[in-house]
Each structure stands twice: as C-alpha cells, then as structure tokens.
Amino acid sequence: MTTADQFNVHYLKKHYAKRQVLDEVTFSLQAGQTHLLSGDNGAGKTTLLRILAGLEKPDSIQIDLGMGPLNWRHVKKTLQQHALYLHQHPYMFDGTVNYNLGYAIGAKLTKRERQRQIDKALEWADLKQLSQAPAKSLSGGEKQRVSLARAWLKRPSILLLDEPTSNLDQESRHRTLSLLEAFKSNGTAMLLASHDPMHFPSLIDQHLRLDQGKLIRIDNQNLIEFDQTHPNFRSTA
Amino acid sequence: MLESLPQPNTDHMDSLTTTTLAALELLFSGNSELWEIIAISFRVSGVAILVASPPALLVAFILAYYQFPGRRLLISINSTLLSVPAVVVGLTLFILLSRQGPLGEWKLLFTQTAMVLGQIALAFPILVAMGHSALQACDRRAWETARTLGATPLRALITIMREARFGLMAALLAAFGRIIAEVGASMMLGGNILHYTRNIPTAIALESSKGEFAQGIALGLVLLILAFTLNAFLQHFQGKGQPA
Known about the structure:
heterodimer, A: about 240 residues, alpha/beta, 3-stranded antiparallel sheet, 8 helices, about 35% helix, disordered C terminus, B: about 240 residues, mainly alpha, about 0% strand, globular, disordered N terminus
C-alpha cells in the first residue's frame, strides 16, 4: 500500500488508436478488501490491471505517494513493488514446480532458507506431491495454484487477478477461492476482473464496473440485484 | 544392349575411395600441420561467436520485445545482410583494414583478429534473425510473469533467454556452422598464412588447387564431423527438454 491501508488511483486514462478504453478512472483499493471489476469483453478490465501492475503505460495516472508529481518510470517502479498481476492463464517457466516457486524468492537467501520457503508455499497451496513435476504439464487448476503460491511468496500489497477461475472445474475453482480467501485475511487488497460475480460469493466487498471507459461503483445492494439477474442465480434459486 | 549404356567411371570411384581413406589416415595419424589448421579454425570461429552473440542476441531481444520507429526497417536490413556473400564482407573489411583504408593504422590485415572481425560480420545477422524468431516465438507472458514477480530487467532477460534456449542454441549453431565453413572472408582478411591464419576452408581451397585432395577431403571430413556432433548435441539437448 502506498499509504497505510489505502491505495488511491486518480485520472487513469488510456486509449488505443481512436478508442478511449479508460477515461479518467478514479478509485481506491483498501487492504484486506476485494474489489470485483466487471465489464463486457473489451471494456478495458485487463488493460486496467496491466497498468496497475506496471506492465502497460497509461496516457495519464496519479497514485497517492505522499510526494510531488512523478514520471511514469517512478510510478511504474512503485506499482511493481506493491502490485502483482496474475494472468488469466498463468505462465509456468520451463522447469519443476519447485523451480517456479523459487523464482518468486529473492536471490539473497541461502539455498536452505529458499527451500524452506518453497516448502511452506507448497504446503500452503497443497502442491507438495507436485513439487518435482514439470510445471508446464500441470492442469489449469494446478497452474493457478502454483501461480497463487508464487504470489504468496512475494507477499504483495495488491493482487491483480484476471479471470482467476475461468475455465476451471468446480473443484479447482473451490480450491482457488479458498487460497484467495487466505490472501484476503492476510490483508492483501485484491482487484479481481471477472465476468461472473457469482463465482466469488463471499470474497467481494465492492463491485466496480467498467462501461465505455468509465468506472461505475455498484453498491452491495446493486451487487445482489446484479447477481439476481445472473442465469446461475436463477437456476439455483 | 547393356554394353551400349554408359558405364560408371570406376577410376573416379576408386580415386575418391582412396583419397577418403588417405584422408582418414592423415586425420588420425596426428598430422601436426593438419591439426594446427583445425585448431586455428576453431579458435577464430569460437572467438567470433563469443564476441558476436551477446550484442546480437540483445538486438534480437529489442527487436522482438520493443516497438519503435524504424523497427521493421532494421529487420529488413538485417534479413538483407543474410544474403551478402562472405567474399563481399571480406572485401569490404579488406578495404577498411588495408594500409590505405580508414582503419589501416590498426595493422590488422592478414591477422587472426581480422578473420575474427570478418566472421563476426557474417555471424551477426544470422544470430539476430534467428534469435529474433526464437524470442518472438517465446510467450510474452514469460517476460511479464518474471517482471511482476519482481525480476529486474536483466534477470527477466536471462529468463526469456532460458525459455527460448533451444531456438537460441539453433541460432548459435547455424552461425557457427556458417563462419567455420566460409572461405571468402577468411582468405581475403587472413591471407591463408601457414601456422597463423590458415584455417580449414582456406586450406581446403589451397590443397585442392595443388591437387592434394587427401588433405582437402580430410579437412572436409572434419567439418562434416563437427556439423554432425553439434547437431547431435542439439537434438540430445532438445530431447531432454521436452515436457514429460
């Protein structure tokens, strides 16, 4: 967090060609809270997450740093220090699960201490039996858990998740959700892009919706109403 | 009927077999002159690859991962350089390094350093072109994952190189194969001086012109064995890297 518990983003703008994807987007993320980011395909959800991860340059952005105006290089550095972005389909480096987890640990630690941390992460994500498996050959759900375990080792203030449960079966979705709950209870702020709020019933604190470049806040009441219009909601009601 | 058909020239076949056997004998008898030529070849081409690879692969990475004005033009120029004959590269450097040339004061002409420079010029576009293809084929999420996990740009770059290692190794082998077998630039820049700048291809050219085919074939065999060994090594390495 750039301040103790809150991360504020102001006037975030981004355009591609003649299309304004993000138009003066302003919002705050709070420690230990999960913000759902919804929107139609191409609404700019992934772009927003990637900008916050420092992976894409916006046209303009202001973040609260308690300092004067900074150029993008400084903002990017700060974002990369605080935020961690998880792809919709996590990338696994060529190597074992053990190697992939070790990548998230700084090189300063001793070999023994590194392995101790890796073992903790393997246990946390229930991946112990897969530690020597080639990471590229894992199932989608297992890759998602490796990806979350890497994030857990980094301990970011902000976790940016892009459709973390898409294409996962029910069991994998369940396991992913319980790991996300653990992040939440550790005080990590999460911004979670998804088409489907129904997948995260107990996780979401606030619902933000991107519509034609503008960010609309939807209060909890509206979130429930929104859910009620969902086909899954109706089918289970 | 059969007698009217042209018969294979058994004299030539015999001659080739005899020459090849003589070449093998020469190769394995430890002929010091022959092995010195081989050593010069490997030294010059090895140094050229070692010097050319880091900047060439960095250029390949920049072309693969960054968008900037003139990028496409640079790729086109590099692809064009792939088809420049070795002798033209040799001639250009010869003019630059000759006594009257702009770099004449360096007194590099007819030295191994001049041969290295020529081979760097030949290897560079191959390394850039093949390195660019290998890195472009590498999933962009690899770079982003490395960066978001806190890797410095240098560590992320090393990670990408590791992910694309088979393609990059193929680029290195292709470039090495090209320069160790080229004759034009080495002849012009090295001068084919015995014990100093005579390498495998220039020695083959000289021995053949003198009618000493056994030595020419022996050196040709060395190149073939080298090509086979390098490719076998790459195949073995790639096989090990296949996901289970």
